Amino acid sequence: MPKDTGIGASTKRREDVRFLTGRGVYTDDLSLFGQAHAVMVRSSVAHGRIVSIDTAAAESMPGVLAVFTGEDFKDVGGNPAGWLINSRDGTPMREPKRPVLAHGKVRHVGDAYAAVIAETYAQAKDAAQVLADATVIEELPAIVDMRAAVADASNRVHDEIPDNLCFDWGWIEDNRAAVDAAMKAAPHVVTLELTNNRLVPNAMEPRASIGEYFPGTGDYKLTTTSQNPHLTRLLVCAFVMGIPENKLQVVAPDVGGGFGSKIYHYGEEALVLAAAKRLGRPVRWTAERTESFLSDAHGRDHVTKIELGCTKEGDILAIRTETLANVGAYLSNFSTATPTFLHGTLMAGPYKVPHVYVNVKTVFTNTAPVDAYRGAGRPEATYSIERVIDKMCRELGLDPFEVRRRNLLTPDQFPYTTPVGLVYDTGNYQATLDKAVELADVAGFEARRAESAKRGKLRGMGLSTWIEACGIAPSHLVGVLGSRVGLYDAATVRVNATGTISVMTGAHSHGQGHETVFPQIVAEKLGIPETSVEIVHGDTAKIPFGMGSYGSRSLAVAGSAMDRALDKIIAKGKKIAAHMLEAAEGDITFADGKFSVAGTDKAKSFGEIAFSAYVPHNYPLETLEPGLEETAFYDPANFTYPAGAYICEVEVDAETGKVDVVAFTAADDFGNVMNPLIVEGQVHGGVGQGIGQALCENTSYDENGQLLTGSYMDYAMPRADDVPFYTVDHSCATPCTHNPLGVKGCGEAGAIGSPPAVVNAVIDALHSGGHTHVTHIDMPVSPNRVWQAINA
Amino acid sequence: MQMSDTREIKAAPSDVWAAILNPDVLKECIPGCTEVTGNRDEGFEAVVTQKVGPVKATFKGAVTLSDITEGERVTISGEGKGGPAGFAKGGAVVVLEPIPEGTRLTYEVEANVGGKLAQLGSRIIDGFAKKMADEFFTRFQTAVEGPAMPEEAAQNADEGGQAPGEQKKGWFKRLIS
């Protein structure tokens, strides 16, 4: 019997009431008295030297209040990379300064080198064009192709970095010789070269920021589209602007999606704060959609050669990869972690492969910065592994389901130490595979294929068994891996006198449904109605601390912090109950919202305890504090390891190359599920984005570094008719062993596991139609590419 | 993008050469051109208004001539700035050869766009550039040798007061002959 309240109930999302009725309050919705408008002046060339900027004409335009250029910020700090990665030879990565506004050189189309502040948006926009016309930029040859970038030392994105290389990383370098030997000794070696296509995140709400300065106190306030306001505050204060952390409040109100792109601090945030201080007025900036295309951190963009050594029976013996990863023109905050520790550490997949070595060369180019995008590194790893295994099956004539079963780790092997440095705590990969096979009716596939053939379509089935490391936290692990910050989270549970509860959480909800799920957990633990609980997030002045939401971490890390704080609330409640019931604290039990003296009928309800805490007329104040509010910080012992099996069925029209995804089955192990409805929605969204990457989306720069896909006319987002009705299951749960909720995280799963399932299905369809010369098609598997491959 | 094509023009190479270097001819022949000033030695300034897909803009730019082999070959380079629309730049190598019918004109064009033009118009920019080049050389051919269509020739003849049947001439040719 499904529950209708508390943990495991499919409570409908309370936040949807305001989102769906247009009553959400987003940054751009805020209108402040005296506000001025900022427009960024962006480079229209990919690479150029700034010869001169004549601001005079722009400054004399109607309504113009101020003009900023890179010169104004040359003495403040740069926006840093959050992870320090060392090259194979031990040298630290090259880390060029990322200024608030470009200074000296512009390094990608859309690189902001100036900003105009005016009374109205239109005035600022007009003056920005005048400023652009009065700027002389000597265009330099653009560096776009990664191979050319590392081959040609004469042309540099950053003058001080000779080979355009950020680092050359080996994981694990000490294992390299053993992996090479295993590969050499392997009876069969499969090689695949592939591209993981560059994606534009395309959150529904473009980035926006409002800066305020209060001269009376010297305080600043930044309202911004952020997935993690505390990290933004840290970066703005300690690294860029030199503002004391206690003098800046960062608020991220309703945020319309992020997918990673709003984790990072961007120059516009520092700009509006500096402008607000100079003018003594609020200064606002909202990106146009084209600005989002040009300046949001993009995702993926790997070029990989993967080799897999195996027996003729399909036992995987070794995996070796060489990857070029594009970081774009500057290092965005997570950009160095994404292609390394979020990618290389997953390159063993869910398999018992003994030898794995990963090499990643990270390359600067004259393109927008590239950073974590839903899945971040793990989709790249999963795509490489699952595609090369599929190729192995075709080369050796093996059944892809059977090959997975031979190689998947078995439940008795946990905890399992991988050859790439992770310890998987728990899982049952056979169970999710069996579940997917059952739900996808694999047995009936041939009949469906025959039916498709009657309609002239080639039907194919693709499989992907995926794993990821998420719940991004343990400080001790990420510290070893190069993180310059700790990754934990915090929550405060405030019980009000009347028994209602406010939870201040470090997680930031920008579509995830925290406002619904977190109260379910509180309600379950305290035996009170969900509606008595309010979630407060996204404001550094209100929440204790937080590292924000990304890496499928909200529930596993911030939710666990909340759980710990609830434990403290219950412990404090027992103290109060012991006083009120005149019993020993050790005799008080808490269940179903009541504090009872064990073995008696003496009890106080949660509400009575709460009221007493704030009306402590007869408290023994030496031993019992008034109030009922607790804070907990939670830093887990390990990552969490969600895993699953995805089966995709496609129909290909061989005449046109058009691919239709006709069925998609996802059987996932997310550990304990707090709200099945929301989890299903997260899987739908993730798989939708994965299908988008596999079939539609591609970010294209021409050889001059001009972005050719700068709008929805040219950048193909998946639409409703590109995706099927999904079959989603998460019943094969092995609870996470180290967090109190036993949860693993589900936000990125769909985007990680689905692209190889789609492409494997397309290859299967083409082979079934006799097009066996097609061994690989790079994403997006567009009609043009499929047709070209068929007719090659 | 790159394009190349060949045209046979019924006029002597010296006439074709003179036309190429004439700002009035360029103004007539560049689609959307409203102004051309300057000369072959110091270069030309041109103003062109064009609509590329969703982007309409007025481009102001400089055109320079280089690698000149008198009467035979010239490289034309230009860059136009279109304000918020971005920029377009390119070059054309034009080669003239005498043939019995007159002149064979061969051109190789390389064109690039940047900014909004690239972001919004890239799907159509190749077709657009080809159309621009076609139109330019068609107009140029017309200007030098006269209209290709008999009806058009007749109309021109009426306007010009020429008797029907008289050998048709392009306006430029009439100007210099």
TrEMBL record, chain A:
Residues 21-141 form the Aldehyde oxidase/xanthine dehydrogenase a/b hammerhead domain. Pfam families: Ald_Xan_dh_C (PF01315), MoCoBD_1 (PF02738), MoCoBD_2 (PF20256). GO terms for molecular function: iron ion binding; oxidoreductase activity. The keyword Protease does not apply. The keyword Ribonucleoprotein does not apply. InterPro entries: Ald_Oxase/Xan_DH_a/b, Ald_Oxase/Xan_DH_a/b_sf, Ald_Oxase/xanthine_DH-like, AldOxase/xan_DH_MoCoBD1, AldOxase/xan_DH_MoCoBD2, AldOxase/xan_DH_Mopterin-bd_sf. Keywords: Molybdenum, Oxidoreductase. It comes from the Bacteria. This is Xanthine dehydrogenase family protein molybdopterin-binding subunit. The lineage of its organism: Bacteria, Pseudomonadati, Pseudomonadota, Alphaproteobacteria, Rhodobacterales.
From TrEMBL, chain B:
InterPro entries: CO_DH_gsu, START-like_dom_sf. Residues 151-177 are annotated as: Disordered. CDD domains: CoxG. This is Carbon monoxide dehydrogenase subunit G. Pfam families: COXG.
